[in-house]
Design a protein that fits this description.
With 121 residues, this protein is mainly α. Helix content is 72%, strand content 0%. Helix 2 packs across helix 4 and helix 3 packs antiparallel against helix 4. The model has no long low-confidence stretch (mean pLDDT 77). It is found in: Cell inner membrane. Keywords: Cell inner membrane, Cell membrane, Membrane, NAD, NADP, Translocase, Transmembrane, Transmembrane helix. Its EC number is 7.1.1.1.
Amino acid sequence: MNQELLLGLYVLILTIFLGFEVISRVPSLLHTPLMSGTNAIHGIVLLGGILVAGTADRPILYLLGFLGCALGAGNLFGGLVVTDRMLEMFKPRPAEKPAGEPAPVGAGVQAVREKEPVRKP
């Protein structure tokens, strides 16, 4: 085996273990804000995949570049969706009455009056 390939595999395996350990120790409360903060890193992964695929002279390099682009794009857009959902939680909701609370007296009559046209005698 090529020494460079062996070193690359070694670094890949170490980063997989390191990433798993770091992510597993993040509290669930912090996971979403950290996910939104790592979108820039996913953009760099996508750019790296484009560069590898664009300069590939062997099929394996083209495959790795394509795989990097696909996985980087999935992570990038998934992170953006999660960030959008997180920010949606902080928007004010329209005022709704609680489910168990009875409607005020005459509220139904007022709603019907607003929908009907006004008739003049």
